[in-house]
Write a structure and sequence with these properties.
Layout: H1 3-28, H2 39-53, E1 68-70, E2 76-81, E3 102-106, E4 135-137, E5 142-148, H3 160-177, H4 179-183, E6 186-192, E7 195-200, E8 214-215, E9 220-223, E10 235-240, E11 250-251, E12 253-255, E13 266-269
Parallel strand pairs: 1-12
Antiparallel strand pairs: 2-3, 2-13, 3-10, 4-9, 5-6, 5-8, 6-7, 7-10, 10-11
Length: 277
């Protein structure tokens, strides 16, 4: 087992210890200063920070690696969030191989996607978002090495209380549950040459492929959902140098005919020439 994998296991154990100590102190009054309760939490995030900022290995992608050109995973009109064109790491962390990850949301026309609300509604149905159920296609020929679509699609977290709940409570619980709970329903493709593509937050029950399947570029893999650590139905896409996000490092990408859209940039992706069901 790699050092990174062991570090992620230790990180989750420290998170669990933090919640256990908080509950024990509330019920039993353990008698020591309350700030000590936060020691496991501090250690957990220090550990992750150290692991993700140091200790590069020969298998890590070079810092100056050229982007890998692949097809867009969607077609139609979309816009970008948390784009590596604006900053890296795009999601604020190198963890889970998401240094160059991107989130995209469907924008079939201006105003079609519900906006963020301060207080109400607290949450929205997934059907309110045009991205929900959109087909996702293989960005290149490859082999399915991971496929999971058993987790539920939850309501949106697009209000201030909902977002705080996601960041402070739900996110921590999902971290303890492991990478599967973070990425939700997902597919990982082995594209060859040490490059793997991850599609996260897929719709429950939407997988059209299984592990071991050989797929062609443009083939439908699954549909966009709202599972895992997700605020609304959207596509989370990234390239990485291994099949396990716990240990993989991110690889830069560029989408053929689109490039890497910046935050808020609306782009139009052409439908693949061939898209088998």
């Amino acid at each position: 087992m790699s050092a990174r994998k062991l570090a992620m296991i230790a990180f989750r154990a420290l998170l669990a210890a933090f919640f256990a100590v908080i509950i024990a102190d509330a019920w039993l009054d353990l008698g020591y200063p309350h700030w000590w309760n936060f020691l496991p939490l501090v250690l957990a995030y220090v550990l992750v920070a150290v692991v993700n900022r140091t200790g590069r290995t020969p298998d890590d992608p070079p810092k100056d690696r050229e982007p890998v050109e692949v097809d867009p995973p969607v077609s139609g009109r979309w816009s970008a969030l948390n784009s590596p064109a604006d900053r890296t790491p795009s999601h604020g962390t190198h963890a889970y191989g998401q240094t160059y990850a991107i989130d995209i949301v469907a924008e079939p026309e201006p105003g079609a996607r519900p906006g963020f609300r301060a207080l109400w509604p607290l949450a929205r149905r997934n059907a309110d978002f045009p991205a929900f159920g959109a087909p996702l296609s293989a960005v290149a020929d490859g082999t399915v090495v991971r496929a999971d679509d058993r987790q539920r699609d939850h309501l949106s977290r697009t209000s201030l209380p909902g977002l705080l709940y996601l960041m402070l409570v739900e996110g921590a619980v999902r971290e303890m549950g492991g990478v599967r709970r973070i990425v939700g329903n997902h597919v990982v493709l082995d594209l060859g040459d040490g490059t793997h593509a991850l599609y996260a937050h897929l719709q429950r029950g939407s997988l059209a492929v299984r592990e071991g399947d050989r797929v062609r570029a443009g083939q439908v893999l699954a549909r966009c959902g709202n599972s895992g650590n997700s605020s609304e139905p959207h596509v989370h896409f990234q390239l990485m140098n291994g099949p396990d996000p716990d240990t993989a490092r991110g690889i830069p990408f560029t989408w053929r005919g689109v490039g890497v859209p910046r935050n808020g940039e609306v782009f139009e992706a052409a439908a693949p020439a061939s898209r088998p069901a």
